[in-house]
Amino acid sequence: MDVYEMGGYLPLELGAGTGFFKNIEDTHILELNTGRAAIWCAVMSLDVDKVMVPYFYCPDIIKMLQNMDVEIIFYHIGEDLMPVNINMDESNFVIILVNYYGIIGNEVVNYSKKFKKVIIDQAHAFYYPPVMNDGVMNVYSCRKFFGVPDGAYLIGKGIKDFSLERDVSYNRAVFLLKSIELGTNSAYLESKLNETEIGKNILKMSLLTKHILNGINYELISEKRKRNFEYLHNRFDNIQLLKIPNGDKVPYVYPLMLNQGIHETLVQHNVYVPILWKDLINNNDKNTVEYMYASRIMALPIDQRYDIPDLEYLISLVLDISKNNN
User: Fold this and answer.
1) What is the tally of structural domains in the chain?
2) Whether the Cβ atoms of residue 202 and residue 45 lie closer than 8 Å to each other
3) Which of 10, 91, 234, 292: CA 20 to 30 A from 175?
4) What InterPro entries does the entry give (predicted)?
């Protein structure tokens, strides 16, 4: 609860707007600290015995599910990033469908209509509208799109009333302030410590994150991400091996798939691209689609920090590295 105080020093000035999902009824939205927490609350709210999960998925969420009282059934995805060979005869299950990279939202939503209970993981697609049908839960991550220490949303009908404590993040948020003055690389260790810490408990979203989110210019960020995505897509058209569906989207990253991964070389040039997901490279057969995606897709940054000159530098670097690797 907010503390009532008067006088003293002035606190950090944050915007006085409203959150992105302000039009969602209070009973249909839960503000949480992590995407993992949102998945946990979604599974608990749907009262299922089994959870269908893609092999190509976040290992931390899979570990969390393994500690729940549910059976996990894994499924493969195809070269269109969509599920293959799903057993529809299973009883009392929920399937987790992932809008990978934020580029297959329409395909995922259409596919979800086959099932009675669905969790749509929109962690890579913050701006994609939630599906408000019975039996559907929508999960969103704030940290993948905005500079906040924690934050996720669970949206859907029938969310249970969970008695959760609220996260307190001021003591972990120093990496955000440090990065403004010294750059993101200088605060990398602090950001990883924050990531480890928030994964320990299922909590409500911190007040700090809530206030930051209320001051964000969501429209400006959306336009920048869309512009940057389209710019890279047009320039990498001749080397892109991943089929990207047409349609309006506000993605998390630009997923560039090449004949071989160039993650390490990009990092050597101070371009930090996450591997989604590194564990899959170590634990999967090299002949699987999951291994191919994990090892060969570069999650190139397209976020609101970057303008066209930044993208031109990135394009030139990627093309040079690719040329030298051939």
Assistant:
1) 2
2) no
3) 10
4) PyrdxlP-dep_Trfase, PyrdxlP-dep_Trfase_major
Taking only Cα atoms into account, the Rg of the chain, rounded to an integer number of angstroms, comes to 20
End-of-domain residue from the set 191, 215, 239? 215
Tell me: do 113 and 92 sit in the same domain. Answer: yes
Tokens of 20: 């992105």
DSSP alpha helices (H): ranges in 35-104? 35-46, 59-66
Q: Which of 215, 244, 269 is the last residue of a domain?
A: 215
| Two tokens, residue 85 | 């060979």
3 state SS of 273: coil
What pLDDT sits at residue 244?
Answer: 96
In the chain, the amino acid numbered 147 is G
Return d(Cα 284, Cα 280) in angstroms, integer.
5
**pLDDT one-digit tens code per residue, 128-169:** 999 999 999 999 999 999 999 999 999 999 999 999 999 999
Contact 245, 106 (CB under 8 A): yes
Q: Residue 83 sits in a domain of what CATH number?
A: 3.40.640
- 146 with 246, same domain: the answer is no
